[in-house]
Each structure stands twice: as C-alpha cells, then as structure tokens.
C-alpha cells in the first residue's frame, strides 16, 4: 500500500491498532478489454467507521465496490466479510452476508412499484408478506421523512431522479447491513435529504456497522468520513485519517498533481448585442423569466431544488411547454431550434445511448452535418468525431469505443463535443460536472469558458453546487418558488450570497412539480386500464353486432365463440408469461399443431391403454422440451428470442408435416366429448381458462415468483443486482409458455377432431395480439393474465362478428390488427407520458 509525498506523513493508520474489520479486500485485480480497472488493490473497512473512498472517474472506486458486492468477478483477489469469505459474483450471497450498496445509477426495476422494489432489495428474512406490502413500504419511507412525497404504489419509472435515489437509499438502510456502500449518493439529493442521509449513516455506524462512502464531493467526504482511501489509475494510493488531510491535499492525491486553478478566468466584458433574450417567459414550475445574455457570458440558474430553475432550463430548450418571448440574436425562435442546444444532467437516461460508440454519439447530434440525402457519410462522421475527441481531450481508446464504457468525465465531454459541433448560439447545461472527478471538472469548466469566449455564445448552467456557480458564472439568477428573486453579478457571485438569497426567500423546500399528466392518462398507464378498456370494447362490439344481426346472440354461436376463445386465451396466457420476461415466443402456434399431431397417434379409439398413458406423458414432455430448447437458443446460444423461436417454429411445422402429411388419426370420441363439453352455454375449456388466468394473476401480484418474473422483464441487469437470476426466470417463462400452448393444443383437439399438421399455425400472431391488447408490454415487465383473457375474447369476438356484420372476410384480419395497433399506441403513449412527467 503506497504512500506519496508529504501526505505520507499525514497517514495515521498504525498497524499496531487492534480493530474489528468489517470488510476486507485483498489483492483484487479486475481487467476489462484493454483496461486494468483494479491492480492488486487491498483495502480494510472497520466496523463502526465511515470509510471514504475518493479518486478520479476511472480510478476503480465503483469497480472495487462492485467486486465487494458480488456484481463483478475479479481475475484475482478475495473479499472477506467479518472474517468469512464471500462467493465471487453472487449479489444474493453478499446481501445475505450483510452488504448493501447504493449505486451511482439505482438498481431499481422501472416497471415495478416502489413497494416491490423495496421488497426485492431486502434479504428474504427481512421481507414482509406481500399482502401488507404497501403499508410496510409506506412505513419505511416515513422513517426517511414524514413528508417524503413518494407513493409506495407508484411505479419507479414515474419517479424523479431524486426520489429514485431516496428509494434506493431507504431500502439499503432498511437492510441494516454490516457494510453499507454509498456510491455518489448525494448527486441528485436536495440539501435536506443529504442531511437525512448523513443522519442515517451516523445511526448505522453507532449501531456497529461500517459505511463505505464514495463521492467526488470532497467537502462531504471530509465531513462524514473517519478515514479516507485514495485510488488512482486502478491502484490504492493510501489510507489516511480524514482529520489529517485538508481539501487541497486530497485533491493532489486524487489527481497526482497540484491543480493551480480549478476555474478559468471569467468574462472580461459584456459588449455586443444580446445573444439570448427572454421576456415574460412562463412554463410549468416557473414564471416571468426575463433576461438578456451577452456573447461570451456564462449565467447560472440557482436555488433550492424544485424551485423552477431546471424547469426554466428545459423550457428554454423546448423540452416542455412555454409561453412568452424567446429571441436569439434578436430573432424570435420556436420551442425547438438548432440555435439552442441542451445537455441533460441525467446523462444515463437522457444523454447516452447504450451500444453507440463515441463516433455515433457525437454524430447523432450533428446529423445534418454528417449526412447527405438522408444517408450518413461514415467518413465525415468519423473525421468530425476524431477531431472533437482530440480538441476536447476525451480519454478513449478510439472513436469506435462504446461511450458507456468511458468514465463519467469523458462521457460528459463526448456529449459536450456533440452539442458544440452543432455550433449553437446558446448552450444550456444541467449539472455540467455531476458525477465527474476533480480533474475532469477543471477541464469541463475550461471547455465551457472557451466555447463561450471563442464562439461568442451564451452558456447557461444549472448547478446544485454553490462553489461551482461561484467559480464558473459571470452572473447567477436565484430562483425561489418559480420566480427569480435575486440576480448576482461580479464580486457578488459567491456561494454564501447564492445560498442566502435562496434561503431568505423560502425556508422550506418545494418539491419540483412533475410535468402535468392528466388523471385519465395516468389511469391508462396503469394496470386496471387494459381490462376496463377491453371490456367496454367487447360490450360495444356485441351491441353493434346484435343491432345488425340478432342471430349473433344465438346459443350455438355463443357456445362456439367461447370455445374458440378458450383455445386462443390458453396460448395467449403462455405468451403473456413470455412477454413478461421480455421475450417473444413465435413457436406457440406450430407447437399446438404438433401436440395435436402427436396425440393423434395415441388418443384414438384403437389405442391401447399403454399408448394412452404414453400420450398423456407426451402432453407434458413435448412442450417442456420445446420450452427448454427455446431457452437454450436464447440464453446459451445468445440468439434474439424472435429468431430463436422462429427456428423452433419452422422445425415443429416440418416435424408435423413429416408425421402427418395428410390429416388422419381420429381422436377417440370420448376424449373430444369431454374436451368439447359445456356447462349450459359455457364450454368446459372456457371455465378452465378462467381458472388458470385467475390463479396466474394471483401468483403474479401476490407471490415472490410473480414479482421476480416482472423484475426480470423490467430490467434484467437491475434484476441481477437485486439477487435474482434472470436466466433461470427466462427458463421458467419459456417452459411455462410452452406448457400452456400445449394445453391450448389439447383444447384444439376437440375442434379439429384428428391429427392435422396445419392446425394451430394461425395462433402465433393472434396470441401476441391478445396479450398486447390485454396490456402486456413487448419490452417486458408488464402484463395481466385476466386482461389477456379479455383480449382473447375481443380478438375472437371481432373475427366471429365479421359475417354477422356483413363485412368481407378480409376484415377478420383487419379488425384484430387494428385493435392491436390501437392498444400498442394508447398504452405506449400514456406510459411514456407518465414516465416522462417524472423528469
């Protein structure tokens, strides 16, 4: 463990001290392609202490804690908790042994409720019964703050960034872990919540726990930590008593050099006509913003979180509705204009695109400059990206490197490079250095100042860091309750003046209002809407059909339609399970037909009892094998689920034709009579489907496996960090889907009467339609089994109603297709509106 320069004398960690070690990492090495993230790192964290870990982005801090929490498997090294070795790569084991972690990006499941996320975040022995989940979650949130303002029944995707972090912190603290790891926990928190976090940290330490506190905010680390460890370039540079280091020394240890000037010189003059002018600008969360910004000027928007400064910035960018006058170079501009560029403070959700390279990330923001006739010119895009990387000093192996693999500071510089290449007249930046290390902060400040000075543009920044505003900005507008209450400029731009201006206007934090989302839109985005909407549509269609043709209600038609619904609903229930985990199973239709063909050899009147028993065994074995095969293609062969199940589709169809080139093998009438029987007008098959749907719905909402399935589909990576194993859940989903499709094939036997290789093929697409109409998301995480049955009823009813309505046969395809498109559009738009309203 190295010591460097004068700081070595400040280290006050004596080897003779006898202390209880809560977490011990020894010789940890972790290598990513082309990068050694950790190089033989050893670190001890004591029980009853707050251990600060600092370093630049890319220094290895988060990687080290990912190894400690089981999220990453190191090439070498050991992790020991209270003297017991931890299994590498198992987040569940680490959590059970007493490690809880709050990551830079919360590992929450967006499609699950706040309460369900809290539930999954705790070890099994601390979870309540699902029946009392909401009340339990409300209690945990109230412990954080009585007026926290988070609905435990709300989906996480509806929450603001601040509330997502609070939920993640609350569940980590509720675990009462032996070691609590906090990785940049205050980046999105308002001041009051930072104080609540610090109180929670102190309580954990007083109870004998250990806290690892990772942050770029040196002042916070100094305030809360007992000891501080410094990482640089993947190596441990020393552990020091926090009280023996000043901020300048910590910065020198982090960057390996002295930073003489963190902030560049400010704007010397204010000549020239205004670049940006606003008059009476109003929008959601703020009002009456009037300003005139000169060339080369950097203006800060400040205030207690939620008082309108971010709303004003987003309105200027055209990301929310606004009224009033906005002019650039004295020309009035529309809401969205190329003369104003915006860089979001939430780069993970609104800036970066997973999978895109540095070149593509930069090129995406300047498409007109790198394309011709609608076609991107790769050479021009590469040239522009490479020059931007060089100009802005982006540390990357090359322009083809995925942007998400870069450190936070370099990601921010890539995004900045993209917006600057658009040559805007006004640059709007939300939290320019959030999650960025000390060294990169200085570089970003210089880039912003140079852009303003050399290009004559105006830069407006929103920052929660008063020192940043003081050092960077020529002027600062302080917001309170949506109004600018004070304007500071020149020598008056000081952290204390900014803070005082905000606090003297209001002593209470106001929660930033979400974008206005109507009650009906919010309801449409919920779980109850699909069943209600489909139910109303079913009734409306029935009324129309009855008015046009009264024979539509004839008993024979009712029973026949319900029998058809039974088959479709059963396979659609299986499709819903597949969609729940984020996969699509195209093989269900041919599987139904294959089951019919196989059973035509075993369930005939001439079959022996032994053959019939074998036939019953195959009813389960065949679908199970198909389900496992689909899973193997997806999870072992790493194929896309559509491609994988299309292969199975073709294989099953071919096997059916080989076994039954022509229809044959009449089923025993006793079998078909039972399968086709009815209780009054209601077929036995429909009763079975309803029972299966109700049981599955109960399991979906009231069992751990139901929560786990939705979690795996909502975000597989986050599900893994919550101790789940998405691969196993997908196996379960594929097998369950195939078994239900096989059961659908059994019900189909009563309708076709013999082995027919073409039976079932049409059910693949309409099973997806029924599930989607019933509210299932093709991206995973959402669905309702009861609503799926309603969707099957609507699809079948629409097909059956065509002749009664006097329509052409083609309408049997048009109607289900139109209903599916309408359902996708309505649910997607409403869910997007609700999720977007949280930002």
TrEMBL record:
Task: Kindly give the membrane topology term recorded for this protein.
Answer: Multi-pass membrane protein
* Main location group: membrane
Q: Name one Pfam family in it.
A: ABC_tran
Task: Give TM regions.
Answer: 528-552, 558-581, 611-634, 641-659, 679-700, 731-751, 763-780, 785-805, 811-829
Respond yes or no to whether keyword Nucleotide-binding is given for this record: yes
Q: What is this protein called?
A: ABC transporter domain-containing protein
Q: Which residues form the ABC transporter domain?
A: 23-506
């Amino acid at each position: 463990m190295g010591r460097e320069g004068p700081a070595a004398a400040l280290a006050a960690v004596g080897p003779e001290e006898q202390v209880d070690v809560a977490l011990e990492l020894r010789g940890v090495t972790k290598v990513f392609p082309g990068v050694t993230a950790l190089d033989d790192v050893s670190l001890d964290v004591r029980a009853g202490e707050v251990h600060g870990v600092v370093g630049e982005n890319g220094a290895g801090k988060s990687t080290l804690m990912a190894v400690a929490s089981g999220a990453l498997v190191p090439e070498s090294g050991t992790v020991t908790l209270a003297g017991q070795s931890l299994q590498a790569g198992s987040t569940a084991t680490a959590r059970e042994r007493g490690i809880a972690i709050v990551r830079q990006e919360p590992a929450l499941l967006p499609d699950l409720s706040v309460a369900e996320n809290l539930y999954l975040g705790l070890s099994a022995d601390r979870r309540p019964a699902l029946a009392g989940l909401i009340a339990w979650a409300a209690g945990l949130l109230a412990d954080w703050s009585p007026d926290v303002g988070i609905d435990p029944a709300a989906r996480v995707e509806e929450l603001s960034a601040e509330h997502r972090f609070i939920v993640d912190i609350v569940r980590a603290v509720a675990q009462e872990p032996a070691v609590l790891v906090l990785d940049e926990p205050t980046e999105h928190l308002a001041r009051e919540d930072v104080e609540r976090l610090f109180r929670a940290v102190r309580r954990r330490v007083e109870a004998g726990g250990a806290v690892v506190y990772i942050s770029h905010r040196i002042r916070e680390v100094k305030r809360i930590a007992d000891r501080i460890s410094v990482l640089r370039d993947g190596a441990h540079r020393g552990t020091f008593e926090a009280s023996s280091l000043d901020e300048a020394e910590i910065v020198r240890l982090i960057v390996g050099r002295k930073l003489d000037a963190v902030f560049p010189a400010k704007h010397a003059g204010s000549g020239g006509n205004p670049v940006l002018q606003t008059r009476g600008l109003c929008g959601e969360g703020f009002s009456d913003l009037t300003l005139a910004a000169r060339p080369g000027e950097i203006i800060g928007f400040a205030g207690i979180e939620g008082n309108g400064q971010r709303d004003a910035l987003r309105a200027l960018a055209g990301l929310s509705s606004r009224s009033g006058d906005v002019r650039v170079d004295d020309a009035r501009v529309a809401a969205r204009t190329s003369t104003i560029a915006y860089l979001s403070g939430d780069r993970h959700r609104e800036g970066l695109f997973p999978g895109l390279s540095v070149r593509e990330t930069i090129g995406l923001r300047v498409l007109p400059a790198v394309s011709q006739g609608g076609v991107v010119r790769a050479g021009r895009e590469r040239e522009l990206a490479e020059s931007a990387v060089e100009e802005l000093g982006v540390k990357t192996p090359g322009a083809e490197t995925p942007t998400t693999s870069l450190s936070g500071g370099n990601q921010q510089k890539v995004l900045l490079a993209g917006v600057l290449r658009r040559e805007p007249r006004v640059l709007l930046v939300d939290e320019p250095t959030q999650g960025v290390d000390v060294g990169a902060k200085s570089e970003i400040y210089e880039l912003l100042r140079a852009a303003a000075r050399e290009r004559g543009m105006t830069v407006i920044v929103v920052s929660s860091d008063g020192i940043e505003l003081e050092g960077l900005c020529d002027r600062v507008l302080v917001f309170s309750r949506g109004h600018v209450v004070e304007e500071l400029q020149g020598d008056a731009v000081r952290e204390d003046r900014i803070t005082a201006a905000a606090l003297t206007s209001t002593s209470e934090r106001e929660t930033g209002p979400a974008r206005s989302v109507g009650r009906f839109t919010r309801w449409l985005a919920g779980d109850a809407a699909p069943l209600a909407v489909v139910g109303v549509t079913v009734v409306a269609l029935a009324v129309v059909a009855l008015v046009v043709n009264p024979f539509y209600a004839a008993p024979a038609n009712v029973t026949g339609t319900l029998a058809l619904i039974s088959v479709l609903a059963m396979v659609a229930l299986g499709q819903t399970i597949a969609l729940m985990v984020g996969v699509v199973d195209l093989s269900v239709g041919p599987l139904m037909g294959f089951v019919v063909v196989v059973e035509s050899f075993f369930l005939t009147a001439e079959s022996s009892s032994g053959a019939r028993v074998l036939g019953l065994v195959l009813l389960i074995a065949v679908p199970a094998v198909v389900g496992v095969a689909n899973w193997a293609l997806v999870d072992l062969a790493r194929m896309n689920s559509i491609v994988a199940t299309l292969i199975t589709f073709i294989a099953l169809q071919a096997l059916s034709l080989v076994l039954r080139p022509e229809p044959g093998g009449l089923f025993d009438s006793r079998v078909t009579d039972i399968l086709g029987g009815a209780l009054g007008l209601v077929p036995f098959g429909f009763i079975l489907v309803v029972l299966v749907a109700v049981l599955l719905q109960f399991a979906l909402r009231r069992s751990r496996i139901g929560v786990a399935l939705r979690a795996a589909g909502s975000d597989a990576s986050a599900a893994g960090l919550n101790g789940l194993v998405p691969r196993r859940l997908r196996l379960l989903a594929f097998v369950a889907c195939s078994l239900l499709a096989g059961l659908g094939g059994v019900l189909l036997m009563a309708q076709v009467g013999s082995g027919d290789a073409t039976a079932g093929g049409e059910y693949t697409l309409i099973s997806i339609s029924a599930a989607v109409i019933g509210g299932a998301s093709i991206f995973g995480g959402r669905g309702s089994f009861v609503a799926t049955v309603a969707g099957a009823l609507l699809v079948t009813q629409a097909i059956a109603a065509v002749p009664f309505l006097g329509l052409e046969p083609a309408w049997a395809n048009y109607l289900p297709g139109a209903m599916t498109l309408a359902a996708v559009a309505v649910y997607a738009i409403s869910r997007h509106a609700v999720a977007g309203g949280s930002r």
